[in-house]
Amino acid sequence: MGAAEPTTTMTTRLPRSMKDELESLAKSTGRNRNTLVQEAIRRFIDAERWQIDLIEERVREADAGNFATEEEMEALYAEIAPSLRRTRAR
């Protein structure tokens, strides 16, 4: 295993209730707050990065003129339309 990545300190403000929930979660899982916060931030960064990468990829495709054909859109609509009608009926 390689050397640990250098760390830095970052200060943030949280609502007291969120801090209390974090404390409770740390206690019940046997992990410390720092580990939980790092894990949460890592998940957030990964999700945001994935979404941004996908958007950028789709923009490149659109810029290249790579769009769904009318037939592909009709097939997609035929597939999802029944579930849309059920959702609206509720």
Description:
- This protein has 90 residues and is mainly alpha-helical.
- It has one domain.
- 72% of the residues lie in helices and 0% in strands.
- It has three helices and no strands.
- The chain is elongated, with a radius of gyration of 22 Å.
- It starts with 15 loop residues before the first helix and ends with a helix.
- The mean pLDDT is 91.
The major pleated sheet works out as: none
- Coarse structural class: mainly alpha
Shape: elongated
Radius of gyration: 22 Å
* Distance linking N and C termini: 55 Å
Write a concise synopsis of the structure shown:
This protein has three helices and no strands.
Characteristic terms for this protein:
90 residues, mainly alpha, 3 helices
